[in-house]
Amino acid sequence: MPEQSEVRLADGVRLHVETSGPADAEVTMILLHGWTLDARSWHRQLTALSEAVGTAVRLVAYDARGHGRSSCMPLRTATLAQLGDDLAAVVDALAPTGRIVLVGHSLGGMTIMEYAHRHPEHFAARTAGLALVSTTAEGHTHTAYGLSSRITRLIRLAETTGAGVLARCGSWRPPLALLRALRPSIRWLLFGDRCDPTDIRLVTSSVARASLRSIGGFRASIGAQHRLATLAELAHLPAAALVGDRDRLTPPPCAESIAAALPTAELTVCPGAGHMLMMERPDEVNSALLGVLRQVLGRPLSAGPLTPASPA
To answer: Which residues form the AB hydrolase-1 domain (predicted)?
Structure first.
């Protein structure tokens, strides 16, 4: 079972952390979840990888500020810049020595880019590999929700206006009953052709744990971030970029621009998959993460079943 702990940040925010593997492992892999989600979204990766890597790799996953079991935060800190600073603090607290591999889904991928942008020397000294899953380096440039440009503009206006209202609601959480009623919309927005019922229940549960401040507060910086130039400075690192061709939030052009900035990145486009690749296509995601780890470690890793059963 993973070990649970907390990292207390300089501003008093407490991050809920789960770790597995020895503290003195050769490599620490840190997995960062997406907006309104929590570390449980990586459950298929954490279980499968812990079986495949043995004692060579330590696995770390944490809930971002305002998400999951981490505490809420002041509204002024609901920014990608702050999340990048938080990641630097997590690295110092949980992996003070040795190499790290950073894995980010959606907001988590943007957090990694912000860490590289704001702490370039810290990042360069520690980071040995990257995996960017269903994310973007260009804000909302390519986000069209699979709809016409006119409807997209209307949705974006409503979304940004609503985000401002939610951001002022503090640590309140969205009612689970309301989210259950919205499951068809959540399923349409986040998943592709197939959706396991356990996955939509997990996503709904995760959103119910996110504070309204985090749901609304991060929206502005998410839409405005542009970090392709930062990625281009990391072109020497082993990397992977993955996307589903039914992703309505970060469609294939997002991953294609990341791969263009990172020529070492292996680009994987998963047919029929949406935004939740870790759940929809765990084999592909697990294989990509193991591929990066093999390059970082310079040797093969044990082969085994890469898709564990879903949690009850």
So the answer is: 30-287
